[in-house]
Design goal:
With about 250 residues, this protein is mainly alpha-helical. The chain is built from 12 helices and 5 strands. The chain folds into 2 domains: about 70 residues, Orthogonal Bundle (Multidrug-efflux Transporter Regulator, Chain: A, Domain 2); about 120 residues, Globin-like (Orthogonal Bundle), CATH 1.10.490.50. The chain starts with a strand and ends with a helix. This is MerR family transcriptional regulator.
């Protein structure tokens, strides 16, 4: 049985663009290409994709993943290591569920029908969130200079710096969610002021041009990991952020 690239993307959560990139670098060629130019995958390719995704969870780069898959490395040992990482992630997510639960409990509806947050302990908002910026393996592979610049900037930050950065990022996500809930258009000056802050935050790690900044916004929507982080704050926030970043890129970076 064979599946089209669109079907594999739907099943796996990996975008068609990423699957095409995997083919281009020789990491995951399709089983065959139809007369219409569409890629088709069979069970062997699906199993290989699962292994790719498992090793991405272990923070391996695409070149490292290909080396493992093309070698005789004990894949059972890799899976065992991955299982340990998943158990640690499970504990973190349980903490995050408690964090979000506390925030929900502190929500109250004001007289205008908008939801405002009454924060009793501000530190409770951030318990369980990752304390380091996540660098996608595809970025490392396709834009190594930007990835290296980002890695060096992150390495130079102290634990306190990283915590302050993460708190600032989360606080901005909450502010954007409030704009979105109020129906504020992404072209609004206040929203674009938030994009200025966001752009400056990104520039701590690497300096995107207009196209790259738009691409980053699209990644927030396309990548399930990024989108999940935004949807933890408010459903649809990733799309709202992407659209606001596109406006900022067109008006300030072009």
């Amino acid at each position: 049985m064979a599946w089209s690239i669109a079907e594999v993307a739907r099943m796996s959560g990996v975008t068609s663009r990423t699957l095409r990139h995997y083919d281009e670098i020789g990491l995951l060629p399709p089983a065959w290409i139809g007369g219409n130019g569409h890629r088709y995958y069979e069970e062997a390719q699906l199993l290989r994709l699962q292994q790719i995704l498992l090793m991405r969870e272990l923070d391996l780069g695409l070149r490292e993943i290909r080396a493992v898959l093309d070698s005789q490395v004990d894949r059972v040992a890799v899976l065992r290591e991955h299982r340990q990482r998943l158990l640690a992630e499970q504990r973190r997510l349980e903490t995050l569920v408690r964090t979000i639960g506390r925030t929900i409990a502190e929500l109250e509806e004001d007289k205008d029908g908008q939801h405002m947050v009454k924060i009793n302990r501000p530190e409770n908002l951030f318990e369980g969130f990752e304390q380091s910026p996540e660098i996608d393996a595809e970025v490392r592979e396709r834009w190594p200079e930007h990835w290296e610049q980002s890695r060096q900037a992150a390495a130079a930050m102290t634990a306190e710096d990283m915590e302050r950065w993460q708190r600032a990022v989360t606080a901005q996500m909450i502010r954007l969610a409030e704009f979105m809930a109020a129906g504020t258009p992404v072209t609004d000056a206040a929203v674009q002021a938030e994009m200025e802050v966001h752009h400056q935050s990104v520039c701590r790690f690497w300096t995107p041009n207009a196209a790259a900044y738009k691409g980053l916004g699209q990644t927030y929507v396309d990548d399930p990991r990024f989108r999940e982080n935004y949807d933890k704050i408010a459903e649809g926030l990733a799309v709202y952020q992407r659209d606001a970043m596109a406006v900022y890129a067109d008006t300030r970076l072009s």
